[in-house]
Amino acid sequence: MARVFVITGPSGVGKGTLIRRLRAAVPELRLSVSATTRAPRAGEQDGRDYWFLDEETFHRKVEDGEFVEHAEYAGRRYGTLRSELERHLAAGAPVVLEIEVQGAQQIRGTMPEAVQVFVAPPSFDVLRERLAGRGTDDPEVIERRLDVARGELRQQEQFDHLLVNDDLDATTERLVGIVREQLATATAG
Ligand SMILES: Nc1ncnc2c1ncn2[C@@H]1O[C@H](COP(=O)(O)OP(=O)(O)OP(=O)(O)O)[C@@H](O)[C@H]1O
Ligand SMILES: Nc1nc2c(ncn2[C@@H]2O[C@H](COP(=O)(O)O)[C@@H](O)[C@H]2O)c(=O)[nH]1
C-alpha cells in the first residue's frame, strides 16, 4: 500500500517547487521535515524548512538509529527522521519525502513499497541556470552540486517514475496524477 512518496533528483531541478504545488492539489499529503547540518538560508525556519542540527547532534541521532535514511551531500549531512515519518503515518496521512539520490536508494532497500519519483532537468545547462537563478548558493556551491548531479542523473532509470521537469504546469499535473492514482489504489485495496 503506497503511503510514502519519495521525490528525488538533482539539486535545483524543481523538487521543492513541485512538492509545494503537489501539496496544494493533494492537501492530505504531509511533508516530512528533514534534518540537516547545513546553515539556514535567508527566510528558512527551524522545524518548518528543516530541523537544523549541529554535527554532534546529527551524529548522535545516527548512532541512536533515529534516521530512516541519511546521507552526506556536498559536504553537509541530511536525513529523514523516523519520528517525523511515523508521526504522519500514525495519523493516517500519506507522506512525501524530498531527498537526494543516496537517501532515495536507501529507502528503496528499507521501504520497497514507497513510490519513487526521479525528477530530471530538460538539460544540464537548464539545471545550471535554475541553480544560479534561484540565487541561494555561491558559485562554488553551485559547481559542487552540479558535480554531484552528474552522478545522480546516471541513476535516473532506477526509479519507479521519471519526470522531466520542463514545463512546470505539465510536470505538476503528471506528479499529481501519479500520487492520486496510488492513493486511490491504496484506498480501494
Ligand atoms: N519547470 C520549471 N521551469 C522553470 N523554472 C523552474 C521549474 N521548476 C523549478 N524551477 C525553478 O528552479 C529553481 C530551483 O527549484 P527548486 O528550489 O524547487 O529545486 P530543488 O530541486 O528543490 O532544489 P534543492 O534540491 O536544492 O532543494 C527555482 O528558482 C524554481 O522556481
Ligand atoms: N538524503 C536526504 N537528502 C535530503 C534530505 N532533505 C533534503 N535533502 C536533499 O539534499 C539536497 C540539498 O538540499 P538543500 O536544501 O541544501 O538545497 C537536495 O537534493 C535535497 O532534496 C533528507 O532528509 N535526506
Describe the SSE topology.
Blueprint: E1 4-8, H1 15-25, E2 30-31, E3 35-36, E4 51-52, H2 55-63, E5 67-73, E6 76-81, H3 82-90, E7 95-98, H4 101-110, E8 115-120, H5 124-134, H6 139-153, E9 161-164, H7 168-188
Parallel strand pairs: 1-7, 1-8, 2-7, 3-4, 8-9
Antiparallel strand pairs: 3-6, 5-6
Helix pairs in contact: 1-7, 5-6
Bound molecules: adenosine-5'-triphosphate (ATP) and ligand LQESDW3C.
Residues 11-17, 130, 133-134, 165, 168, 171 line the site of adenosine-5'-triphosphate.
Structure description:
Residues 2-180 form the Guanylate kinase-like domain. Keywords: ATP-binding, Cytoplasm, Kinase, Nucleotide-binding, Transferase. It catalyses: GMP + ATP = GDP + ADP. This protein has 189 residues and is an alpha/beta fold. It is 46% helix and 20% strand. It contains 7 helices and 9 strands, in the order E-H-E-E-E-H-E-E-H-E-H-E-H-H-E-H. The strands form 2 sheets. The protein has a 5-stranded parallel β-sheet, sandwiched between helices. A 4-stranded mixed β-sheet has the order 4-3-6-5. Strand 5 (67-73) and strand 6 (76-81) form a beta hairpin. Helix 1 packs across helix 7 and helix 5 runs antiparallel to helix 6. The longest helix has 21 residues, at 168-188. It is globular and about 50 Å long. The mean pLDDT is 96. Bound molecules: adenosine-5'-triphosphate and the ligand Nc1nc2c(ncn2[C@@H]2O[C@H](COP(=O)(O)O)[C@@H](O)[C@H]2O)c(=O)[nH]1. The ligand Nc1nc2c(ncn2[C@@H]2O[C@H](COP(=O)(O)O)[C@@H](O)[C@H]2O)c(=O)[nH]1 binds next to strand 5, strand 6 and helix 4.
